[in-house]
Amino acid sequence: MKISVIGTGYVGLCTGVGFAIKGHNVICVDIDEKKIKMINSGKSPIYEPLLDGYLKKVLKEKRFEATKDIDYAIKKTDISFISVGTPSRPDGSIDLRYIEQASKDIGNALKNKNDYHIVVVKSTVLPGTTENVVKKNIEKFSLKKAGKDFGLAMNPEFLREGKALEDFSNPDRIVIGGFDKKSTNFIEKLYEKFDAPILKTDIKTAEMIKYASNAFLAAKISLINEIGNICKKLGIDTYEVAKGIGYDKRIGDKFLNSGIGYGGSCFPKDVKALISKAKEIGYDPKILKDVISVNEKQPFMILDILKKYLPNLKGKKIALLGLAFKPDTDDIREAPSIKIIEKLLEEKAVITAYDPKAMNNMKSIFPKIMYAENPKHALKGADACLILTEWDEFKNLTEKDFSIMKNKIIIEGRRVLDKKKVKNFEGVCW
Length: 430
Ligand code: UDX
Ligand code: UDX
Prior knowledge:
6-stranded parallel sheet, 17 helices, about 45% helix, alpha/beta, 14 strands, binds uridine-5'-diphosphate-xylopyranose, 2 domains, 8-stranded mixed sheet
């Protein structure tokens, strides 16, 4: 099939390249000229394992291109995915300006197209948005009718950063919220080569499934962090407890890693947006609010432990290992490391940070802290070390690597060090 994808963030680009790998012809559209040039030269604007290699492959095989020209993309394809960002406003509600813009642009482009075309919302949007914003804008600007002249659907993404292409190819499930049977069947055909259950729903159920998934996962993390905070005070290793409960099939053994809390481009904004929607319709979502409040405090737990050793941080050299919100990405959106750096700077600590991929992004927020070329460089002469992302690279650190610190105070915010290789370190919840 011929597919266009509007918005080349990590979701749009991975979806586009993913469909091209499966043999479809894909045109990715973005308003950012720089991104388009990079993508067409075979270089991904974001770090995502496997992406560069596959991008080069599908470009070479002429099954993929990127453009700024949405009219061209709509004309040349049968189906368009909207995957522009849906950030939070300062009050936590969803900011739909990019969705509004993309649906107007699609509407304008569809005005000049005679053939049937399907528009699919991939971005995470609150129940009602596809029908009340996207459909409305497309109809207004194209002068056409959904169901009659064009198809419409919502097909949420469940791609984890760092594993996006794997998740694209091996999804746990595919959710299709169709406006009508024709749209649903068309999209079902698109996914016929995937080995996953397909759930067909109406549009607003599909929209809600995405929020409910992220709310559940975020809640699971806050709950294990809360258990972890209690375990820490009782001298119990939370990870042993997590293993013990994970065997219970009703709980499951995934997503039970306690630490400094969840970050990223999805959980924080999606839980906030769901709370904001619930309030708008007169419901007070108590658990969801607590999911956030546990998560907001969690990064500071590591600083409380640090202060046990160094009550006054002024002038103390702190080595930070890991900045990205999770490993295998250069993304620092809502990363717990940001809150930790802010607090350390407030207390006048001297920071040297190292991350294998995320330092350039962090430099735009904190241009004045020091950045190291490798872990050893960050650790040299440090008064303490905080580990904030569980990069594989840190798993190999040994006692010898830490011996160049001034004081060997090591605190893990994510479970990563090997007890056989490093002595005397502690974890935020263990
Ligand atoms: C995505 C989803 O869209 C979001 O809803 C989901 O919850 C998380 O993942 P992400 O891929 O991280 O967001 O988006 P972002 O990195 O913000 O990229 C969006 C892209 O769309 C940008 O490259 C931007 O330039 C582009 N864009 C935005 C357009 O091409 N057209 C527009 O009108 C607006
Ligand atoms: C998430 C969802 O998993 C994905 O389905 C959705 O579509 C986009 O949002 P992502 O944010 O890329 O993906 O990463 P994820 O692996 O879910 O981790 C999110 C955050 O939770 C990270 O900061 C991670 O460190 C944290 N986390 C995850 C924990 O603290 N403990 C865990 O057990 C798992």
